[in-house]
Amino acid sequence: MKIILMLLLLSTWVFTQNVIEITVKGISDQQNDGAQQDRLEAILDAKKQACEKAGITIQSTTTVENFQVVYDLVETQAATVLLPGFQLVEIGYVQDGTYQVVLSGKIKLLDEESSISTKEMRYAKSLRDRGKHSECEAILQKYIDSEDPEVSEELKEEAFYYYMKWGYAWSIEESFQKFAAFYPESKYLSNLESFSTFAAKPIYVHDQTYKSSAADWKKTEFVHNEITFTKRIGLVADTIIFKNFKKQDQSILLKVTLFSEDGSEPRTAFHFVLSYFNGDVTSPHSEDDVKVIDDRFSVFQAGGSPTFQHSSTGEEFADYNYTRFHFAGEVPVGRGPFQQRLQFEIYQISF
């Protein structure tokens, strides 16, 4: 039987170590070509979907008349992205006359940023890689809003996509709705829709009460802005591990130290440090692997409120921005026992 398929596989073959689990349904065409042929068509469809989910773009440009050639071509590409251990479950013929299979397993993702083709986007990426986020964001925004006829719709679409992917959109849900309205046929739409749903909810909520006693205060001599603090207490020292959008483990290190000076109305202060492991959280690490996100020291004047609170948009690292971050609690003064409550939420706004 002669089957005409239009295929061109475009890829850069540069893969990251990102791995995801997939489940896809392969469906044959509705022409009854015999069980063996229909089964191969369904398998071809399933593996082609796996390739597309891994980031290999398939476009219709080349006519191939020999089905076996097409099948072997997709098999070759699928073997590159499908990890060993995947399963192929045969459903068989269904009511509409198609043959169906279900493929499930793990695939390696193509690093799409390595295949950016336009010089404008390559420059924007170079700024981001160097930590020049305000400049990168400004360039992306310029292309998104451009009315210059020389700026192609493809460039506008790509700039909008990376504007969201790189974490510059404050409201992910609102930006996604706008993107979907402008580019309803975009190849990025499915990925952005999944992320916008994920990003709408906090990936971590911290709400814990910490207890200590007067005996936990240690003698010290710490000077800050000409104030000498004579006592300190380690309130919190936690390592928090949670799953990111790619279902990978991500960690943050939370450390809060309280300080106090002697006196009838002692002044108090807190030192807050939020950091993360730069690498595999399950492996041994050195001080160089710990990167600080936020580090600040705040003093409470005598007679002032014992309540501390802090808000911050945070700083970008790896796949994350921390946004809408807030913590609050009571600073212990005088004699113990003491009790402090810390509350904050973390959202992922880039991926």
Secondary-structure map:
Blueprint: E1 5-10, E2 15-27, H1 35-54, E3 57-64, H2 67-81, E4 87-93, E5 99-110, H3 119-129, H4 133-145, H5 153-165, H6 172-182, H7 189-199, E6 204-212, E7 218-224, E8 227-243, E9 249-260, E10 268-277, E11 290-300, E12 307-312, E13 325-330, E14 338-346
Kindly summarize this structure in a few lines.
The protein is of the alpha+beta class and 351 residues long. The protein has helices at 35-54, 67-81, 119-129, 133-145, 153-165, 172-182, 189-199, and strands spanning 5-10, 15-27, 57-64, 87-93, 99-110, 204-212, 218-224, 227-243, 249-260, 268-277, 290-300, 307-312, 325-330, 338-346.
Dominant shape: elongated
Series of H and E elements = EEHEHEEHHHHHEEEEEEEEE
Mean pLDDT: 82
Over the alpha carbons, how many angstroms does the gyration radius reach?
Answer: 27 Å
Strand sequence of the main sheet, in spatial order? 7-8-9-10-11
- Integer count of domains: 3
Query: Which structural class is indicated by helix and strand composition?
Result: alpha+beta
Q: Report helical residue fraction.
A: 25-40%
